[in-house]
Amino acid sequence: MTLRQERGHRPGQLRILPRIRTGGLAGSDADLLVVAVEKARRSMPDFLKPLDMAMQGTISRAIATGDLKAGDGTLILYKSSRSGPTRVALIGIGKDSPSGLDQIRKASVTVGGLASSLKARHLAVALESYAGYKLEPSLLSRTIMEGIYYGAYRYDEHLTNPTEGQGPTQIVLELITAGSTMQADRLADGLQQGAIVGTAVNMARTWANRPANLLSPDVLATIARDLARRSRALTCKIHDHKWLARNRMGGILAVGAGSQNRPCLIELRYRTRSGTHRPRIGLVGKAVTFDSGGISIKPSADMDQMKLDKTGGAVVLATMQVIDQLGLDLAVIGLIPAVENLPSGTSYRPGDIITTYAGKTVEVVNTDAEGRLILADALAYAGEQGCKVIVDIATLTGACMVALGKYMAGLMGNDQQLIKQIQQAATLSGEPVWPLPCSDEYAEEIKGKVADLRNTGSKWGGACTAAAFLRQFVGKARWVHLDIAGVDLLEGKGPHQPRGASGFGVRLLSRFLEDLAARA
Ligand code: BES
Ligand code: MN
Ligand code: ZN
User: Fold this and answer.
1) Of the four listed, 63, 469, 472, 513, which is most buried by Cβ atoms within 10 Å?
2) Which ligand lies nearest to the CA atom of residue 455 in the structure?
3) Does residue 257 share a domain with residue 134?
4) Phi and psi (nearest 5°) for 268?
């Protein structure tokens, strides 16, 4: 695989510099050396013996206490001699998955959080901690890198005072291995992939976290344009409200009508020379920069969180960056309908009948069911642009959160094979999905009397009727829909986890597209 240089970095944004070192742990001079140990263990793994000796038996005594089972399962030990790492973090890991991927990911997120809280600038990870899982080296190092990026992330761009909240902006990450040089090459590949994906995830989180007064549809368009400007394989077109009117994108126009911040449709195209011959893939992301509900206004409690309603769009932008930086051999169009849903004298209203880009008419029953209206236009446009495969991602329904809770995204679609491919990518990437139906029964509920469709169904199964609505606009394309309403917000419950946008979908979509590129 050809990997392009990391170009996503901005000043103030976290960057992790990879190193690989072959040798013993006691020789490391890291601020924080990370060792993962199975929680239930009472005896020390062999590879720790030399370090334990250098630390006068502190490690073996710590493990023998069984304290790794307590609290969050992290123990920090300090050096007692002049050389060696300043701190050793023992991270207790469970038995989440037989492959070890979940354990490694979780431990690495913890490590990132620790690095951020402790302001550690030189991290080292003892790879032998994970030797028992026998993972392919690049998958191992990528998982570690992604996890640390994820855990070290802080949304601090508006803090004027560099205080507690702010983590380091640069971390050196050293993987310590006892392995061969061939393995080192694979490890290095994985670190680079992990850095590309990790930076992109954090960029998506920052865009999603940015409040609506600072990130309106036109600002999102500028971000997309900048992405394309820095890349040879990406091009960007911004379709403004005049274009939307000329092209009769009645869904996007209606939802955007209430705000002074005009709507737009962002179109990013990615193509390599050989990718031209590939079936075109459409990624469609909902970007409602703020969802007040419109005239069907939402209750005010937690309405501030509706700045996150642009997460789908942010995830598509970030994924386009990943595709570009990994140099995937594919033809992809990223489409982001961007609007602000506000009540005003110019808003669309309950009862309005609008004509979508596909020509289908919709009776607006509830102006808060706005996501499906803007996606309808973008999905129909994707089909028209020749996309044979379409994936949309959207914070679409509270009902999906009711159905699945906060850990898994809802997965719907019209093609079992595509659904299976997304499920596989979810397992590998650690962003879990769960299948939900969107069959004809649900479509029946949104059939209209005065227009072709209504934009809401009955009281029940709201995630499914929303997906059934989208399904009417994808034409013959193979399509899947990811409802990320439940997973877009991290509650910040863990000691090192900040509250805010999760960026859910970047790792999943990246993995899905990498697999597609590898398969063909
Ligand atoms: N953006 C919301 C969905 C949402 C709710 C995301 C909570 C994250 C957390 C979406 O636009 C919406 O308002 N959906 C309505 C649809 C209903 C009016 C049919 C909902 O789920 O209540
Ligand atoms: Mn809404
Ligand atoms: Zn919404």
Assistant:
1) 469
2) 1
3) no
4) -115, 130
Ligand nearest to the CA of 485: 1
Domain finish residue from 190, 206, 222: 206
CATH number reported for the structural domain that contains residue 148 in this entry: 3.40.220.10
Q: Residue 238 forms beta bridges with which residues?
A: 266
Q: What is the mean pLDDT of the chain?
A: 94
222 shares its domain with 192: no
Across residues 374-396, what is the average pLDDT?
Answer: 98
CATH number, residue 347: 3.40.630.10
372 is catalytic: yes
Q: Which atom of ligand 1 is nearest to the CA of 371?
A: 11
- Shortest-distance atom of ligand 1 to CA 293: 13
| Annotated catalytic residue, options 372, 454, 478, 511 | 372
User: Does one domain contain both 224 and 184?
Assistant: no
- The Cα–Cα gap between 40 and 232 comes to 51
Q: What is the mean pLDDT of residues 67-84?
A: 89
Residue 291 Cβ contacting ligand 1 at under 6 Å = yes
> Does the structure show a pLDDT above 90 at 497?
no
Residues 6+ apart with CB under 8 A from 160: none
The predicted model gives 35-42 an average pLDDT of 94
Cβ atoms of 34 and 148 within 8 Å: the answer is no
Considering the candidates 4, 39, 248, 298, report the single residue annotated as catalytic.
Answer: 298
* Domain end call among 206, 237, 259: 206
199 lines ligand 1 (CB under 6 A): no
* 215 lies in the same domain as 276: yes
pLDDT band at 195 (very low <50, low <70, confident <90, very high): very high
Region 42-61: mean pLDDT is 95
In a domain, 239, yes or no: yes
Phi and psi at 204, nearest 5°, equal -60, -40
Residue 1 has pLDDT above 90, yes or no: no
Residues 6+ apart with CB under 8 A from 163: none
Whether 7 is in a domain gets the answer no
Count of domains in the chain? 2
Evaluate if pTM is beyond 0.70.
Answer: yes
The widest CA-to-CA distance across the chain, in whole angstroms, is: 80
